[in-house]
Amino acid sequence: MMYVWLNVSVLVAVIVFWVIAMAVHGRRARQRIASGAVTTTPRPGRRLAALLITLAGLLVLTGVFDNVIVGLGIVSYDETKISGALLGVAPLEDFAYSIAAVLALPALWVLLPAKGAKP
Question: How many separate domains does the chain show?
Fold first, then answer.
């Protein structure tokens, strides 16, 4: 069960990071709108839809490729360190990394300054 606790701790950290990044992004968007630099309002529903579509696609691909590499014996797991919950032959814990990537990358995208952007 070691992988479960590792994944939970990473996912909690990534979710906190994502929430903070989205709050900072929202504050910046409101400032740009108030200053007149931008005339359109952000559409959080579109962002959430894109996030969910990306997550669905990545989870499907993770399921396919994890089952292939585990099924062929390219990767194996110590049975005492996984939860025992499987999707096909791949442990459920493998899917946490896809979820973390889908949340962390957009958070980094909105927090890091654009090339040539003024602070």
Answer: 1
* All residues at 6 or more sequence positions from 87 whose CB lies less than 8 Å from its CB, including other chains: 63, 66, 67, 95
CA distances from 107 to 17, 20, 53 (A): 7, 8, 16
Q: What are phi and psi of 86, to 5 degrees?
A: -125, 150
pLDDT tens string, the chain, 119 residues long: the values are 688 899 999 999 999 999 999 899 888 888 888 888 877 766 778 888 999 999 999 999 999 999 999 999 999 888 888 888 899 999 999 899 999 999 999 999 988 877 766 65
- Residue 65 domain flag: yes
Domain around 8: 2-111
Does 116 reside within a domain? Answer: no
Residue with tokens 């630099």: 37
95 assigned to some structural domain: yes
Which residues, other chains included, contact 50 with Cβ-Cβ below 8 Å and sequence gap of 6+?
Answer: none
Cα separations in angstroms, 89 against 6, 76, 78, 80, 93: 20, 10, 13, 15, 12
